[in-house]
Amino acid sequence: MEITSAQLKELRDLTGISVMQCKKALEEAAGDMDKAKIILQKKGGEIALKKSDRELGAGVIGSYVHSTHEVAAFVLLACETDFVAKNEEFIALAREIAMHVAAQNPLYVNRAEVDEVALAKAREVFMEEVKDKPVDMQEKILAGKLDAYFKDRILLEQPFIKDQEKAVGDLLNAAMQKFGENVVIRSITRMSVK
After folding, report:
1. Per mean pLDDT, which range of 43-57, 94-108, 147-161 is the poorest?
2. pLDDT per position as a tens digit, 24-66
3. Which of 36, 53, 120, 146: disulfide with 29, CB 3.0–4.6 Å?
4. What's 58-109+153-192's CATH class?
C-alpha cells in the first residue's frame, strides 16, 4: 500500500514523532492509522528502555498553581541537553505533569521509591483480607492488592488526568521517542493550604 503525505502528516500531527518513524509505522500497519499509533507506542517503550542509562545534564522545573491558589506543585523534569530543555513542548510537558501532581497528589515518582515500611504496613493490612482465601492463592491475591494500592500512589503509574487512557509513564516514553533523549522526573513537590 502506498503511504500518502496526508497520512504521514496526520500521524505526525497526532503523535509529534519524526516523519521517518511515522512512515515506518504506517508501512508496518499497511496504512491503518490506529495500528500505526499502537506500533509507535510499543516502539516508544523500547526506545525508552534503550535511552534509560544515558546521563541527564539538563531539564526544567514545571510549576502549576490552581486557580484557587490553595494547591501548587513543582516537577523537576530532566533531559540530556539544553536544546530539548528549552523546547516549548518539553516545558509544556513539565507543566502538565505538575498539574497532574497538584490534582492527584502522588506519594512516589516510581515504584523503586516505595519504602520497606510502607510496603510492610500495606502487606500487613492486605494479609488480613486474604487470610480466608485458599493458601495456594493468597500470595497471588496479595500481590494484586498491593499492586492496585500502590498504583494509585505512584506518579508514573497513575492514569494521566487529561487522558485516562495513558499513564504518566506513557507521557515520558512518548517524550523520549519524540525528543530522542532520556527524559526522567527527578522530583515532585506538592503544597496545599488544607
Report:
1. 43-57
2. 888 888 888 888 878 777 776 555 555 556 566 799 999 999 9
3. 36
4. alpha beta
